């Protein structure tokens, strides 16, 4: 299949609005012609003065033509611009929707590697960069090339010699434009990449300002941002250095049409081979031709930019998605089977030959050292990642054969970094099930231990939590996230270190609430405190990407050395805390 180039992508995006764009171009062409014809009118006035014509009506009619056409020029331009912008803003909205829809369909690995600053840069700034091309360049460049072309034909028909000499500066100017475009794409891409890095650094600096202040790292952290800003500035300077000399030369030479027209016209006029009226017509029309041509040529800057912009947008749109069927499948039971599962990230093996069965309506806990792969198993079950090798089945169905929407409805996933929207507490919990009533939301909040602290907030359930839940503590955010997952009423619940931010006193309350809420469900717990998972039906010990052992708490204390060491360390830490009280 042939890969789409920049123009093909632009045509595809603009196609639903082709009538608006075609109409916009037509009005733009008429507007340009209305702007050029007054040059002909001025020619007639000058010729009339040379012929010493005394009829006022003669001059008034041409003055009226100039005035009316200049008004019509701006009127048609306004109509053209309105049509093209209206269509372009709809294109931009559709491209942004496609990008955000694409993000949902991508594996977590891609999103994990893409900094939020770079993502924002693509979805906001890059998509905005489509506007000059579709809203301005498409109608205006077309019109400003077509209008002068028609006038050139008229000039050639009037006197081919003057028509030819009026073009003398064009090939020279085009030589300089070609020089400007030689490394344009490379320099502009470098400029874009440096600004992308600046965006990433700015977002990182702002998000981490609390940590920066706490550890007195303001100078070094600011220096990183300052360096990124300097690199962005230097890339802009390099870009300008590589283009502006050529551009200035071209824009100086291009309109200097009289350099050819005046000497040649004067020579022919003195030899009696050119009439005065034709000479004047050639002078004024050649000036009239250059104005729209300069406008058209100025869009070459956008031609160089748009290729890089479209390339960045389409590289995201072309990313490989999590491929799932659309037709729902029948799930007979919620046993989860991992069969020889392998997973690699950035060419590094994370999980190796994981084979495991998680029984339906049971509590299965995963523990292990940091980086052992336990959270990765949870993400694979939730289809946030794709297995590299092997398979995961729910019941007797491979999860790759289950539509994403159906799978997402089956699984409630709560991580240690759950995001809360800048909305009310009530609406953040209701995200679990949008059709839930206020009373259903509050009932879940009571069962999950949220109700008491919510009622202490300024506006209770109507309190706005701030961006990313910033007005709440880490533990409060986690409890709301757990309530949201419980409201979803999914058959499989995954708690990926979901109580990491809660204090030990509240953790026991939350664990008790979770136990009640997940009755009759399959619960998977990624634990960081061993005391919270001792009653699990099965505990799976993961180490270095492999299953080290599995069994109950008592069985593992007897048979698994790693579990024994982890339990001993846990108890010693607990004793130390008791001694400190």
Automatic annotation (TrEMBL):
The UniProt record lists the keyword Cell membrane: yes
Residue ranges occupied by any ABC transporter domain in the UniProt entry: 336-569
GO molecular function: ABC-type transporter activity; ATP binding; ATP hydrolysis activity; ATPase-coupled lipid transmembrane transporter activity
Membrane topology annotation: Multi-pass membrane protein
Compartmental location: Cell membrane
Domain of life: Bacteria
Gene3D superfamilies the record matches: ABC transporter type 1, transmembrane domain, P-loop containing nucleotide triphosphate hydrolases
Transmembrane portions of the chain: 21-47, 59-76, 141-157, 163-181, 246-267, 279-299
Keywords, alphabetical: ATP-binding, Cell membrane, Membrane, Nucleotide-binding, Transmembrane, Transmembrane helix, Transport
Gene Ontology CC, one term: plasma membrane
Residue span(s) of domain ABC transmembrane type-1: 22-305
InterPro entries in alphabetical order: AAA+_ATPase, ABC1_TM_dom, ABC1_TM_sf, ABC_transporter-like_ATP-bd, ABC_transporter-like_CS, P-loop_NTPase, Type_1_exporter
Protein name per the record: ABC transporter ATP-binding protein
């Amino acid at each position: 299949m042939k890969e789409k180039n920049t123009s093909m992508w632009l045509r595809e995006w603009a196609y639903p609005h082709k009538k608006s764009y075609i109409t916009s171009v037509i009005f733009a062409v008429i507007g340009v012609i209305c702007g050029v014809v007054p040059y002909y009118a001025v020619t007639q006035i000058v010729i009339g003065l040379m012929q010493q014509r005394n009829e006022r009506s003669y001059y008034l009619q041409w003055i009226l033509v100039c005035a009316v056409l200049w008004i019509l020029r701006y009127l048609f331009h306004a109509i053209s611009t309105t049509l093209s912008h209206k269509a372009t803003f709809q294109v931009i909205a559709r491209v942004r929707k496609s990008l955000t829809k694409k993000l949902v369909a991508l594996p977590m690995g891609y999103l994990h590697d893409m900094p939020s600053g770079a993502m924002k840069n693509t979805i906001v700034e890059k998509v905005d960069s489509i506007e000059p091309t579709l809203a301005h360049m498409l109608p205006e460049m077309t019109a400003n090339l077509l209008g002068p072309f028609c006038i050139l034909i008229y000039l050639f028909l009037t006197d081919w010699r003057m028509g030819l000499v009026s073009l003398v500066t064009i090939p020279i100017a085009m030589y300089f434009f070609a020089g400007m475009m030689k490394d344009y794409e490379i320099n502009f891409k470098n400029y874009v990449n440096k600004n992308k890095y600046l965006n990433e650094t700015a977002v990182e600096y702002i998000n981490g300002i609390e940590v920066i202040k706490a550890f007195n790292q303001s100078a070094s952290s600011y220096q990183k941002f300052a360096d990124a800003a300097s690199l962005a500035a230097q890339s802009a300077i390099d870009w300008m250095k590589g283009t502006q000399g050529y551009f200035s030369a071209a824009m100086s030479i291009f309109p200097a049409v009289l350099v050819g027209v005046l000497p040649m016209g004067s020579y022919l006029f003195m030899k009696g081979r050119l009439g005065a009226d034709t000479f004047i017509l050639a002078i004024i029309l050649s000036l009239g031709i250059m104005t729209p041509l300069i406008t058209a040529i100025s869009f070459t800057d956008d031609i160089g930019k748009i290729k890089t912009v479209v390339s960045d947008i389409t590289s995201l749109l072309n990313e490989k998605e999590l491929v799932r069927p659309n037709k729902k499948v029948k799930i007979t039971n919620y046993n989860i089977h991992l069969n020889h599962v392998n997973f690699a990230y950035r060419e590094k093996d994370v999980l190796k030959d994981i084979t495991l069965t998680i029984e339906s309506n049971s509590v299965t806990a995963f523990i292990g050292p940091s980086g052992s792969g336990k959270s990765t198993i949870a993400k694979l079950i939730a289809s946030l990642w794709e297995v590299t090798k092997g398979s995961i089945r729910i019941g007797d169905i491979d999860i790759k054969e289950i539509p994403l929407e159906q799978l997402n409805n089956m699984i409630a996933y709560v991580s240690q970094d759950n995001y809360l929207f800048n909305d009310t507490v009530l609406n953040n919990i209701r995200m679990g099930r949008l059709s839930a009533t206020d009373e259903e939301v509050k009932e879940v909040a009571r069962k999950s231990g949220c109700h008491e602290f919510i009622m202490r907030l300024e506006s209770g359930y109507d309190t706005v939590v701030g961006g990313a839940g910033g007005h709440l503590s880490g533990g409060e955010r986690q409890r709301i996230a757990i309530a949201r997952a419980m409201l979803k009423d999914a058959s499989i619940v995954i708690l990926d270190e979901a109580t990491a931010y809660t204090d030990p006193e509240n953790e026991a309350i939350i664990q008790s609430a979770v136990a009640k809420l997940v009755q009759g469900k399959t619960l998977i717990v990624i634990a960081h405190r061993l005391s919270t998972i001792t009653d699990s039906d099965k505990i799976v010990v993961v180490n270095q990407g492999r299953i080290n052992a599995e069994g109950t708490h008592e069985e593992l204390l007897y048979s698994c050395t790693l579990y024994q060491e982890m339990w001993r360390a846990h108890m010693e830490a607990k004793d130390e805390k008791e001694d400190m009280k």
